[in-house]
Amino acid sequence: MNAFEFALSLPEDIPGYLAILGLLFCWKLHEVEVQLGRVQAEDVRDVLRRLALARPIFQRQRATPWLFIYLSRNDSQSCPQCIKAHLHVFSGSDLKEAAAHIHCVNTHGCRCVIIPIIGRWPMANRLRAQLSSQCASIQLSELNLRSLIRQGGNNSGQDQLACRLLSAMLGEESDHHAARETYLQAIAGTHEGSNALLQTAGYIRLADLLERSGDFTEAAHVTRSFLKTFAEKDWQRGVLAEPQYYGIKARKIRLLRRLLIPPSVAASF
After folding, report:
1. Mean pLDDT in runs of 10 for the chain (269 residues)?
2. Burial of 52 by CB count in 10 Å (0-12 exposed, 13-18 middle, 19+ buried)?
3. What does pTM read for this prediction?
4. CA 78 to CA 72: how far, in whole Å?
5. Which residue of 2, 20, 64, 126 is 20 to 30 Å from 196, comparing CA positions?
6. Phi, psi (degrees; rounded to nearest 5) at 57
7. What is the C-alpha separation between 96 and 120, in angstroms, rounded?
């Protein structure tokens, strides 16, 4: 070792002490600046109060701007409210409030569904902009809905399933098998958040499709599976709409009666 080389060894605690000393120095410097009038001091309680008031704003900005699409069967059995709401799209950030838009009074059982999409493609963004600036909801034509589906069909995850569900509902009459497979895929989803809306849609539309196709046994199985998956408290918590829950119950009773009393026998009464 020559005359210019040396080793400096410090205890491990020294860097921590130096950091504390530096912080104390900064506080003292701030105090001097306040006393000289160069810095305006603020009560920390005022700062915390402003942050607390701003927190809900930040939360709203982070909320996911969902698009919700309302679909019904829109046939002779549909109630006037369902016909009026069919193909309407509205936006919102609360998934649990979406199902509350269903006010179906169909005595044969509610067939209305709400399909949620995040929608980051151009047409979805335009719809979201219109909804935020003009009105609470917009009624789409079937052609416009098909265009929306085509643009979002290449997305992955939930939006892909949502677009497949929408496509299956629009093409249900022409391709029962494809619609059935899509509904089963939605039913297999998890019972959480937006997936609960898709799962409910799969159950309701599959039960309706099977009953109209004359497959009463399978339709009854679907209604039983739905009532095992969703409890009465679920519509009370906003996971699904009350008409949806009781519509499936009414359908189950009707199907069981049909299975226990064949139509040929019932016609003789």
Report:
1. 52 72 74 71 57 47 73 87 92 85 90 92 91 85 95 81 94 94 90 80 96 95 94 76 93 92 51
2. exposed
3. 0.73
4. 8
5. 126
6. -65, -45
7. 21
